[in-house]
Amino acid sequence: MYRKTIFLAALLTFVVVVVGAYVRLSDAGLGCPDWPGCYGRVTPFHASDQISLAVAEQGGEHGPVSMQKAWKEMFHRYIAGFLGLMLLTIAVIAWTKRTALRQSPALPTVLLAVVVVQATLGMWTVTLLLKPVIVTLHLLGGMTILAMLSWLALRQMNLQAPPEAANLRTPALVGLLLLVLQIALGGWVSSNYAALACPDLPLCRGELMPTMDFANAFHMLRELGMTPQGELLSNEALTAIHWMHRLGALVVTAVTLYLVLRMTASNATRKLGLLLLGALVLQFTLGVLNVVYSLPLLLAAAHNGGAAILLVIYVVINFITHRAAALPDARLAGRLSTQS
Known about the structure:
Blueprint: H1 2-25, H2 48-58, H3 67-96, H4 98-101, H5 106-127, H6 132-155, H7 169-191, H8 214-217, H9 235-264, H10 270-292, H11 297-325, H12 328-339
Helix pairs in contact: 1-3, 1-6, 1-11, 3-5, 5-6, 6-7, 6-11, 7-9, 7-11, 9-10, 10-11
């Protein structure tokens, strides 16, 4: 039951991340402008009168509130709430059965703490009217839960770590850290609605280095679409946000390709290396298609899903390299290498 709950929770977390991206990209993040209910009700159906009034006040369903957007937002909250209950169950089992499981309950406990922080960020996302830094942190919180659950799931599996995988520990860790930074940049692009700031490829507005405003682009404490001084965020600032995400994509691609070459050089890690390559190609292709086709909703949500898949694969690789480094043969080889 413990193992199955962990695996199901990891799968549900992936769904929550993708659905959350879909809600954000479809401008449904304020479909229910309060939290945790919808106008204080359990479902949008029960709040239909309030939603109809809000639609009338905004002059139609083109605004942030509509019955369809309310259902999107609440569905995301429902599945996120169920995930929270699953993580609570995992933590309770980890503590009550810790002797039989022979595993420390520390990671499940930290997971539970992270989901509390994530729920708080979800509330602030709505009550602070989609402030970019909160929206980005909310995305990173979801990815953090996915990564931690993936690591916890791997601990339940009898994975064999080849000793030579220990040599990949440094590039695997560097790749993971760069990917996390790139996911943060992607969240900043999305939360600032800068995905189409560079509408062409491979250049940006016909230039390799277009005019950009980095100071306002990456100022954390500001409202959506505004500078810290309360002025409208310029196209130059949006361009800077998008351009940095593209630059980050090139860096992550280069580091990942290096790791793939190292992994495919050994029979023991070749399959996992090819899997990483496939996920990288898929994600890079989705990023290009989003620009070419001007950010269609499903492709944009799939791009978030691709980032989550890459993250999970990187977690698997780091788990294996970490375990390989702990093997007696790997430690002995490390000592002999140091002595020589």
